[in-house]
Amino acid sequence: MIVPFSHVLMLAGILFLLGMFCAVARRNLIMIVLGVEIMLNAASIAFVGASVRWQSLEGQSFVLFILAVAATEVSVGLAIIVYAFRRTGSFDPGAYNILR
Amino acid sequence: MTLYSFIFYVVAAVIVASTAVAITRRNLVHAVIYLIFSFFGTAMLFYLLGAPLLAVLEVIIYAGAIMVLFLFILMMIRTESHQELMFPLSQWLPAALFGLIYVGVGFLTVATTPGTEITLKMVLATPREFALYVFQRQWFSVEIVSLLLLVALMGALHLGKGEKKNNGEDEV
């Protein structure tokens, strides 16, 4: 016996909200990508908890694919960030107005 | 309260605390190190919830590969000289307030939904069972994910290569 399922869901919710706060309130592209990582991590905690709740392996296989998506997103995202940094010399999303 | 639930609450508290510290750091290297703590805690949680293979993958991929990638980028680019501007308090306070309201409503919803009060039993999905399940039932998703990783590799290569060409020649 571990804990009620609701506590796992609440932990995932708190983590998701922390990641969302990081992605919305910080003005640094690297911190925004970190916030997206935290959100994906929270989603995988919810999936593993649901996999235990329903005694099914589908939740765990979803977490495997979330890991792959997170790795993809980070590699492409950081490549774009480095490219943007070399073009504008800043990590602030507000500085990307060279189209103006 | 059994030993397992005690471990769960301790690990959950550590995860939430280290994530909260990480997202408020000004220094990006400190933020990444605190997030590594958070991901180690998540790996322990996965182990507790009966997913040992996922716990190992969490340490290798999240805490190992992804965070080291972040550290590489931070060390390639000097970030200390760039002061981060924060939004004024009056701008993000309403957003935080609405977020807290949603947390309260979400907690109420989770607590009142039938079925969420069920106590989780200790289970264990051995890596052998898990691998058999993934490659027998989910083989098509595995193929799609491999295609996604190939596309990401090509995209990252293209972005890195185009930059070098621009440096050598004049601005087109």
Describe this structure in words.
Chain A has 100 residues and is an all-alpha fold. Chain A has a domain at 27-91: Helix Hairpins (Orthogonal Bundle), CATH 1.10.287. Chain A is 77% helix and 0% strand. Chain A contains three helices and no strands. Chain A has helices at 5-25, 29-53, 58-88. Chain A is elongated and about 55 Å long. The model of chain A has no long low-confidence stretch (mean pLDDT 88). Chain B has 172 residues and is an all-alpha fold. Chain B has helices at 3-22, 28-48, 52-76, 89-112, 127-137, 139-168. Mean pLDDT of chain B is 85; it is low at 168-172. Chain B has two domains: 1-79 and 102-122, Four Helix Bundle (Hemerythrin (Met), subunit A); 138-172. In chain B, helix 1 (3-22) packs antiparallel against helix 2 (28-48). Helix content of chain B is 76%, strand content 0%. The longest helix of chain B has 30 residues, at 139-168. Chain B has six helices and no strands. Classes of the chains: A mainly alpha (100), B mainly alpha (172). At the A-B interface, helix 1, helix 2 and helix 3 of A face helix 1, helix 2, helix 3, helix 4 and helix 5 of B.
Q: What's the story with the biggest beta sheet of chain A?
A: none
Q: What is the percentage of strand-forming residues of chain B? A: under 5%
Number of helices of chain A: 3
CATH topology of the largest domain in chain B: Four Helix Bundle (Hemerythrin (Met), subunit A)
**Shape of chain A, please?**
elongated
Which structural class is indicated by helix and strand composition of chain B?
A: mainly alpha
Mean of all residue-level pLDDT scores of chain A:
88
